[in-house]
């Protein structure tokens, strides 16, 4: 029996990359996508050669169709789809123009929706689909309105798809990371303020620190495993207690 097959969008850096490495360690065959040539090159250099890296832009239906064809040729079927690709544009609402709005929704919603749609014919019954959403969707973030709206549009998909795909025993869940120490976090803060803002943010997290990409990867691996065989339609927040009252 072949090893389970996983497709991870946005898998060349941060959470996606950590998840690809973890799943590979646990015996999965893995394809990841990326769009940035620098992160693609770095991932190809660092990954074991068995992990397949495909350049694909979530905004492009042509790229999505090509990606699915690569998955079909390499694996034949899929057992896990981790819809992790996404962008963030932290800025106040008055600074959001139409192009930024369209970009956020094209990548964070349209890309995920149609990647899932195109992948479904490859899915084995009993598989697992996992979206990355984010804690800002439900608990707020200054300057995060447009990004949260686009990521938040994924949440209503989860219970509806869980019901729709239940006859095939395909489980659909979401993971919502809180403050995670990734390259994306560093890019959201002015370099000269990064250390100060990081310390201030960590001080407001009950567990007193940022999370790691590996910790999110462990939750994704759990949701994909038989241990989560009765978990579907859920959004798992992984944020160190952020947003809890004391």
Automatic annotation (TrEMBL):
GO molecular function list: oxidoreductase activity
Oxidoreductase listed as a keyword: yes
Alphabetical list of CDD domains matching this protein: SDR_c
Pfam families, per the entry: adh_short_C2
InterPro entries: NAD(P)-bd_dom_sf (IPR036291), SDR_fam (IPR002347)
Native organism taxonomy: Bacteria, Bacillati, Actinomycetota, Actinomycetes, Streptosporangiales
Domain of life: Bacteria
UniProt entry keywords in alphabetical sequence: Oxidoreductase
Family: Belongs to the short-chain dehydrogenases/reductases (SDR) family.
Protein name listed in UniProt: SDR family oxidoreductase
């Amino acid at each position: 029996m072949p090893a389970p097959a996983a497709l991870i969008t946005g898998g060349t850096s941060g959470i996606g990359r950590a998840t690809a490495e973890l799943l590979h360690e646990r015996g999965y065959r893995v394809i990841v996508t990326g769009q940035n040539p620098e992160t693609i090159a770095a991932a190809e250099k660092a990954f074991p050669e068995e992990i397949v890296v495909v350049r694909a832009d979530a905004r492009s239906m042509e790229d999505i169709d090509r990606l699915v064809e690569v998955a079909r040729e390499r694996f034949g079927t899929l057992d896990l789809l981790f819809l992790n690709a996404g962008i963030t544009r932290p800025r106040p609402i008055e600074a959001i123009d139409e192009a930024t709005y369209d970009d956020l929704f094209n990548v964070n919603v349209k890309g995920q929706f149609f990647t899932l749609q195109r992948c479904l014919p490859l899915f084995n019954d009993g598989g697992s689909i996992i979206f990355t959403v984010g804690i800002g969707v439900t608990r707020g973030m200054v300057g995060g309105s447009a990004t949260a709206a686009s990521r938040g549009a994924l949440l209503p998909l989860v219970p509806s798809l869980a019901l729709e795909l239940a006859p095939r025993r395909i489980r659909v869940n979401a993971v919502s990371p809180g403050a995670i120490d990734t390259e994306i976090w560093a890019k959201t803060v002015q370099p000269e303020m990064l250390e100060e803002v990081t310390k201030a943010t960590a001080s407001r997290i009950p567990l007193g620190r940022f999370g790691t990409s590996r910790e999110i990867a462990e939750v994704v691996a759990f949701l994909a495993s038989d241990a989560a065989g009765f978990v579907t339609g859920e959004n798992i927040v992984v944020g160190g207690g952020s947003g809890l009252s004391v």
